[in-house]
């Protein structure tokens, strides 16, 4: 019997917490912040006192096709204000370079600098989980997913980073350089959802590494953030419909604000951020190191931790899981997670008769 998923409290009201307001005066941009991980990161920065420009297409009403999930940048900005930060909603289509340029020109005019850019905007079609009539193979999908995720996902990350870089460095700054966080996932290593999704995530991984190399002399960090299974609006929606794949068991999931607390911890410790520049930062593993918790006070284990993997595998194949005390805090090397997933996790498409 699976445990019931933990509620996603941040959807309806701001959480009450005693997070230190150590980011007051920090100027941040979080793209794609109307819902999900982007919203959680914006809230994590906001609860630490930061000024956060939250961007997305949905100012007052959800974007077309996503009404069932809800979420707007205005609502995110209000929650940031409620948590003690400064939330500023800016309607931006990250597939439109002129709108993106106007955002950075506004930040420069109002503050003269930028401390944090979080690239989270991602053109994910509503049917990407293959559960609502989506074709399952790349040849059936054709270029539709590619044309969604590469312009707003890969290219938008590059464009925003180009515009942010001069504001993250230079003589206008006092103290250390800034930080670019590119939100990615374990899909950069192994098959998840579809061919295009993993290819786009892998592209961002290489982009992050190479950007970090060029930014390091300017004391600017650039890293990937890898959340675990997140209780986003999309995941909760699928769970309520009974259509959530076993690979995304919400009983061992993270809230979106857990990612926000990971970013806030890195912003507060620039030396630590520079150590991870160009690398993968797994939210749960950073929490173990730096001591921050999820909204319920827990520290969920990393996806590659045996404390997550063993119960997950047992649930998936219908076996009882061993007691938690028997499972060591051992993390499977990233190298062992590369390549094709096991068939009990993602079944390959059936060959036609």
Which properties best describe this structure?
globular; alpha/beta; seven-stranded parallel beta sheet; 353 residues; disordered N terminus
Compact summary:
This protein has about 350 residues and is α/β, with parallel strands linked by helices. The protein contains 11 helices and 7 strands.
Task: Write up this protein.
This protein is α/β, with parallel strands linked by helices and 353 residues long. It has 11 helices and 7 strands. It has helices spanning 36-47, 73-82, 97-111, 138-141, 144-168, 195-215, 233-240, 256-268, 270-275, 283-290, 306-317; strands at residues 27-30, 51-56, 86-91, 116-119, 179-183, 221-226, 280-282. Helix 5 (144-168) runs parallel beside helix 6 (195-215) and helix 8 crosses helix 10 (283-290). The longest helix has 25 residues, at 144-168. It starts with 26 loop residues before the first strand and ends in a 36-residue tail after the last helix. Residues 1-16 have low confidence and may be disordered.
Q: Report the β-strand fraction as a percent range.
A: 5-15%
Helix fraction, binned, reads 25-40%
Largest sheet: 7 strands, parallel
Low-confidence stretches: 1-16
State the shape: globular
- The pLDDT mean sits at 83
Strand pairing plus helix content: what structural class? alpha/beta
Please report the total strand number as a whole number.
7
- Radius of gyration from the alpha-carbon trace, in angstroms: 19 Å
Q: Given the structure, what is the number of helices?
A: 11
* Strand line-up in the sheet with most strands: 3-2-1-4-5-6-7
The ordered H/E elements are EHEHEHEHHEHEHHHEHH
User: Termini distance?
Assistant: 36 Å
């Amino acid at each position: 019997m699976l445990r019931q998923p933990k509620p996603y409290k941040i959807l309806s009201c701001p959480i009450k917490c005693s997070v230190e307001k150590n980011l007051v005066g920090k100027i941040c941009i979080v793209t794609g912040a109307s819902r999900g991980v982007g919203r959680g990161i914006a809230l994590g920065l906001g609860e630490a006192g930061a000024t956060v420009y939250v961007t997305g297409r949905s100012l007052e009403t959800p974007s077309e096709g996503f009404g069932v999930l809800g979420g707007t940048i205005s609502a995110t900005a209000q929650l940031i204000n409620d948590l003690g930060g400064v939330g500023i909603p800016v309607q931006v289509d990250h597939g439109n370079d002129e709108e993106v340029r106007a955002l950075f020109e506004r930040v420069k005019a109002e503050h003269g600098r930028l401390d944090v850019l979080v690239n989270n905007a991602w053109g994910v079609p509503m049917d990407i989980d293959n559960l609502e009539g989506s074709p399952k193979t790349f040849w059936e999908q054709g270029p539709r997913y590619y044309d969604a995720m590469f312009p707003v996902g890969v290219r938008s990350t590059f464009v925003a980073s180009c515009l942010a870089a001069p504001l993250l460095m230079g003589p206008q700054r006092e103290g250390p350089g800034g930080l670019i966080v590119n939100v990615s996932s374990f899909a950069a290593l192994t098959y998840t959802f579809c061919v295009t999704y993993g290819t786009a995530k892998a592209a961002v991984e290489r982009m992050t590494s190479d950007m970090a190399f060029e930014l390091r002399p300017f004391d600017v960090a650039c890293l990937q953030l890898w959340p675990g299974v997140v209780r986003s609006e999309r995941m909760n929606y699928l769970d309520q419909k009974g259509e959530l794949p076993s690979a995304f068991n919400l009983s061992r999931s993270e809230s979106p604000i857990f990612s926000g607390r990971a970013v806030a911890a890195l912003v507060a410790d620039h030396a630590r951020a520079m150590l991870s520049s160009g690398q993968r930062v797994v939210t749960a593993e950073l929490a173990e190191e730096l001591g921050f918790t999820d909204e319920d006070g827990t520290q969920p284990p990393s996806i590659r931790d045996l404390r997550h993997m063993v119960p997950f595998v047992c649930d998936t194949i219908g076996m009882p899981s061993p007691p938690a005390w028997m499972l060591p805090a051992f993390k499977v090397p990233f190298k062992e997670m590369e390549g094709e997933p096991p068939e009990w996790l993602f079944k390959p498409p059936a060959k036609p008769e």
